[in-house]
Amino acid sequence: MKDDTGPRGAPVSPGSPENSQVFVYDTTLRDGSQSEDVQFTLEDKIRVAECLDQLGIDYIEGGWPGANPKDIEFFRRIREVSLTHSRISAFGSTRKSGNRTSEDAVLRALIDARTPVVTIFGKSWSLHVEDILGISRRANLEMIRESCDFLKQAGRELVYDAEHFFDGFRENPDFALETLRAAEEGGADWIILCDTNGGSMPWEVERALREVRHSIRTPLGIHAHNDSELAVANSLTAVRAGATQVHGTINGIGERCGNANLVSVIADLVLKLETSVTSARELSRLREVASFVFEIQNRPLPKNQPFVGESAFAHKAGVHVHAIRKNRRAYEHILPEAVGNTQRILLSEHSGRSNLAEKAREYGIPLDSGSPEAVKMLSTLKELEHEGYQFEGAEASFELLMRSASPEYVPYFEIDFFHVRMEQRKDIGEGLSEATIRVRVGDRTEHTAALGNGPVNALDNALRKALGTFYAGVNEITLLDYKVRVLAGAHGTASRVRVLIESSMDSRKWGTVGVSENVITASLLALKDSIVYGLLKSGTVPRG
Amino acid sequence: MKDDTGPRGAPVSPGSPENSQVFVYDTTLRDGSQSEDVQFTLEDKIRVAECLDQLGIDYIEGGWPGANPKDIEFFRRIREVSLTHSRISAFGSTRKSGNRTSEDAVLRALIDARTPVVTIFGKSWSLHVEDILGISRRANLEMIRESCDFLKQAGRELVYDAEHFFDGFRENPDFALETLRAAEEGGADWIILCDTNGGSMPWEVERALREVRHSIRTPLGIHAHNDSELAVANSLTAVRAGATQVHGTINGIGERCGNANLVSVIADLVLKLETSVTSARELSRLREVASFVFEIQNRPLPKNQPFVGESAFAHKAGVHVHAIRKNRRAYEHILPEAVGNTQRILLSEHSGRSNLAEKAREYGIPLDSGSPEAVKMLSTLKELEHEGYQFEGAEASFELLMRSASPEYVPYFEIDFFHVRMEQRKDIGEGLSEATIRVRVGDRTEHTAALGNGPVNALDNALRKALGTFYAGVNEITLLDYKVRVLAGAHGTASRVRVLIESSMDSRKWGTVGVSENVITASLLALKDSIVYGLLKSGTVPRG
């Protein structure tokens, strides 16, 4: 560090963590995307970045323009998004050994990304320098120093990732330290010690960090991988030993066994180490963030995931349940609500009914938790969930379920019948998808037809066309997102299917759900709820 | 410890781990069964016990007869199984506060289980004693001492679990230590410090262990839970601080976020801490054991699980793949084979030409990484991935893509046309889904129809029916899993859709993919590849 204020202006000293703020650096969109089975579309990346910004993440590593040309588009698009907290970083390598620094394509691409922060990785392990790159150690040091200097001259905040640092430090500590010095001389604002292969033990991390701090003044960070199931432990140990930047990914995705799971790291840093990386309010959104990042990947959050998993505060053993009724601390190490989770008692309906009454109050529906209506509603809810309904992310369907249970409820429309067909001929090429539908509003009906890109799209078009003749408001409702998940996949193409739809009207957004063995029917159920909810909230009066 | 040999006769001193053997204690069948969604039948339990015995596990906690009467049957049955290594333990609590020790039903049930080992848990935390049990501290100490003594008199090896030890030690260290002394006075052979709520940090575990060793001579153990994602770290830290028994479950199942994952603990103990808890040969069966325990639960092993997950040694980034070809140590912290796993190269847009040539070699297709064919194939791959194709999990489609690029390739069949329809009438209830299809093999065609649960299922049925008249092998192909993912979801119901199918024939499994704006077409593409691949691998000759 050339001066004694950090990149954000706050004084940073290599003191104890209690004196220094700890910064969180998220690489979900870059290292996370190197996970098997993970692929983010450009839209996904923008949405995740917005979500991370709301969580209060300090740095978001958006991509690797040198390796993935698609990422160049991300860096362009993200400039149009107003982030309130996070700083975007572009990731790449030190210059290629044969190149002139100013002409190196990778470094140029990093500059062209026009991000406030740039992160480059360099080799700290003689094995990589000699066996893999086949260059001299001195050349490697020059590459590091010169690449850092070049990026600093361009006015970027610079994060230097010392790749394979702990392996390098174990086998050849002097050389490993020299590589860090080269980065420091080049002007790096941060030097991140990476356990790239994920094989380091916490005590090795602690020892290395303490040794490094004897000769390096630059603020240090930790970038751990989970190959030995120690990434979170290594991250916390590093912070305790003086690191002030922690790298990781949401839910621990990443190459091989993944990166340090930032969800657990953040929760532990705040609730156990009492470092203020997020506010209490932001922390209470942790579960939402964890679910969201997996939802857009159409993946379920592991139930037993620490802090945010569905089972994290679910109690099964009788003695546990009995004890927590007297005092939650008996079997809960933190308050579930602190991270946006809730306590669950398995095989008991007592807490079920109070949850329900809570929701009803939220919706403005009168419901007594002890009433027969509440008991019946809970029973319906459990039945639906057993069939595959999931109301997280589809609360509008749940609210409609509760409202429609009331005798005063007037439906907006009924669907008398529908028909969908799709054909494709090899010689013709384009397929044809057509839907017909007849809707009923009161004693009037509308029977119409529509085409579409596929059977679901055709049906959606037909439904809106028919309803538009009764309710103009239908045209104000936009479909934002459409997701399909096959449940209990082991029944092959005969499995049940769950469709989740996100809709919007003006600034309001809502989610609806439909479940059926048939993707068309499931989609129609979710579409129906989407439209009914939109009409309800816009104050439209049902003409039933 | 009354004498200075351990229960197994080997000298045990509270020295460094290098001097003492470390014993592994598995509670998969007891604590593991308290996991939400986990249920073991009696047969399951016997099979798991046999499997653990082969792995060289020292202790197997088979059940909790006081809480689960079904477990009584397990203890009877397991006596008929000849185990070569493991000792079975029955689990329970200290006597109830009001009871006479000799008449306590739980202790009696433990004796009646006739196991060589018995494990009981007692309260170490004043909160539990006062708030939950509502008894005096002195009464608690008596319960511990007398229960231990009673079980030792009955000739059992006795393991005492100090429940909530670290929480208790944090809030009231003197009382916590007194409870351990009570167990020692009662003759316990082992005293296990439990992080029951899973909220302890590794440095807290270390400090507590070192303090305990000042006043307790009995060999110590660690029983960690994963609520802070630190169970493995806490277990290793405890061993390093002098614990010689480690508790956990296979794959980390258990209450809430689970117990310490013994798979990772064992691998780390052997390969990193160099303690000999299993032989190298037994260690190489680790992946098999991890898979087996989940297989019988009909659950997949998480792909990113450390050491044994499918992705644990799977490399995606081009620079990683390039490096490991020169030296595996570049991105692998251990040899995958040491734990029964293998290295995998992933295909993706991060791939380079060397990945491709590697794959071609695997498939037995001649391809030079420098050839124009390779360049073209890579370009096609990146284009398809940009459209939404994902070949991870669908390698069969990729192999077919490579094969069909060859001029010698003979197709198995063509689809001339198909038609799918679905209708539902409100008054009738059940929907009707029907598909028709005409396939062509050489100069013959088959035109047929089929029904199904939905349009995709109907089309699947029609396709198999038609092809079955040409290739009997079609009937041997089973669909295992069917997944749908909507891409670029922000286009609502008009978005592109990706379908991934997993199929099997005999013991062979393979994955195929299809992408289209239309879920029917996408499914058909994936189904087509599924069948073609199955026919190809079964040696069926195309009749084109």
TrEMBL record, chains A, B:
It comes from the Bacteria. The keyword Transferase applies. Its EC number is 2.3.3.21. Keywords: Amino-acid biosynthesis, Branched-chain amino acid biosynthesis, Isoleucine biosynthesis, Transferase. GO terms for biological process: isoleucine biosynthetic process; L-leucine biosynthetic process. Residues 22-287 form the Pyruvate carboxyltransferase domain. Residues 1-20 are annotated as: Disordered. SMART domains: LeuA_dimer. It catalyses: pyruvate + acetyl-CoA + H2O = (3R)-citramalate + CoA + H(+). One of its GO terms (molecular function) is (R)-citramalate synthase activity. InterPro entries: 2-isopropylmalate_synth_dimer (IPR013709), AIPM/Hcit_synth_CS (IPR002034), Aldolase_TIM (IPR013785), Citramal_synthase (IPR005675), LeuA/HCS_post-cat (IPR054691), LeuA_allosteric_dom_sf (IPR036230), PYR_CT (IPR000891). Pathway: Amino-acid biosynthesis; L-isoleucine biosynthesis; 2-oxobutanoate from pyruvate: step 1/3. It is an enzyme of class 2 (transferase). It holds the Pfam family HMGL-like. PANTHER family: (R)-CITRAMALATE SYNTHASE (PTHR43538:SF1), ALPHA-IPM SYNTHASE/HOMOCITRATE SYNTHASE (PTHR43538). Belongs to the alpha-IPM synthase/homocitrate synthase family. This is Citramalate synthase. The lineage of its organism: Bacteria, Pseudomonadati, Nitrospirota, Nitrospiria, Nitrospirales.
